[in-house]
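Researcher: I'm preparing a figure for a lab meeting and need a structural model of a single chain. I don't have an experimental structure, so a prediction will have to do for now. The sequence is pasted below. Please return the structure as tokens so I can convert it later.
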Amino acid sequence: MKDWRSNVLRRTISVAIALACLVPVAFGIPTAGAANFRQYSGPAESVRAKSSTTQLTPGTLVAHRFVKPFNLSNGALTLTPFRGATPHLSYAEETLLWATDGLNGTVEGVGFADVTLHLSSTKVQAGPRISSLDDTPSLVELTKSQGVYSCTAETAGEGTSVIPVSQGWYAVILPLSPAKSDVVFSAASNVCEHLTSNTVGAAFEDVSIPWHLETHATTGTVIVAVLPKCGHVIMSGGGGNEFTRKFEYQVEAAILDRSPGAVCTPATDVDEGQNYASPSTTHGFVGPVLNVGPHAGKVMTPEGPRQQPLV
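Model: Understood. Here is the structure written out token by token.
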């Protein structure tokens, strides 16, 4: 695998974070996966099932290598035994998998496989272009959310109790070819008693990014985040720490993992006047924010995983 995967924080440009309407709140991990939920509109056979039956059976994955076939949503995503010598799985690559935006649940398995994605039964989400996957050698992480969604008060129309065959399953796919884009596949599921489609979109990494204070002549002191190329801010906030008696602040961004040919929206400096910046404001940990895995909820720093100060 290429070294570029661990260099995401080196591609940086400055952007001021809008703070005028914020109030001090405890920083937390965003609810992962919500952006993937779409009303089901694809072929009925890809979701109609009496219950979730997908299982990663023992012996399918051996030493980070798929040796038996595995599929999600009746073959919408198919993993077949990996051909050739098994590549080395680095800690940086595992961290990237754990920090993928939109994931939740538990990690069911991580390994190399040949991947085929059938777009005829999968909805492509808006965003950067994704590559076709047809027996494409890839590193794959499978996760599964055990949550049962029932929130009829927030949804319109008649609900359903149908549980799709691969309810709650996700797959992060990192093709070994540098010409292919990294993607996240979400299996069709029952969300709030409404069926959603299989979806696929470009993979983003959640990262707690650096920030600093700047003083402007007209608006005074502002917080300026160092936003990496191909990234966008998804959360910013902070609050008082009763132990240190200081105001702590963190900025989290979603950064495009890899999408060949993607055109990134340029960032700009935004000054919105009054905010909570001050010389006494302290910085939270910087690094990938882990959404799943053994250190879920922590930030991967150069010294290892660390609990966010305001969680």
